[in-house]
Amino acid sequence: MSYRIGEMARILGTSEHTLRYYEKMGLVVPKRDSNKIRFYTDEDGNWLKFILHMKQTGMSLEDLKKYIDLLEKGQEGLDELLQILYNHQEEVRAKLNIYQENLKLLEKKIQFYEESHKLGNNKNLFNKFVEDAEC
Known about the structure:
This protein has helices at about 5-10, 15-25, 40-55, 60-75, 80-120, 125-135, and strands at about 1-5, 30, 40. By secondary structure, it is mainly alpha-helical. The mean pLDDT is about 90.
């Protein structure tokens, strides 16, 4: 099937502007009809889903562009492509660790307020922080 830019944007849950930007960066190359109107194929849609997935993991568009260029090189670009993925994996792990620490802190805050509420206490975390710092 083929899809005009608005249809593909709706399918992907993104904007037409984003698709045009990805095209400008060379991340996707939609076909054009005889009137020079761009259209996307199912294969383009799958590729765009991959790009959006990688963006959700925090991969930069520059690294995605390098990734695409290396894919086109085939076996010759495989080592560098893998290095991009290894580096990105480490970045995702580091971010995950930060999120896990933040989640622990959030859980402590929730516990503090739940206990405070049960006791009919109107203390807040800032006041507790000040009290703890004075000790």
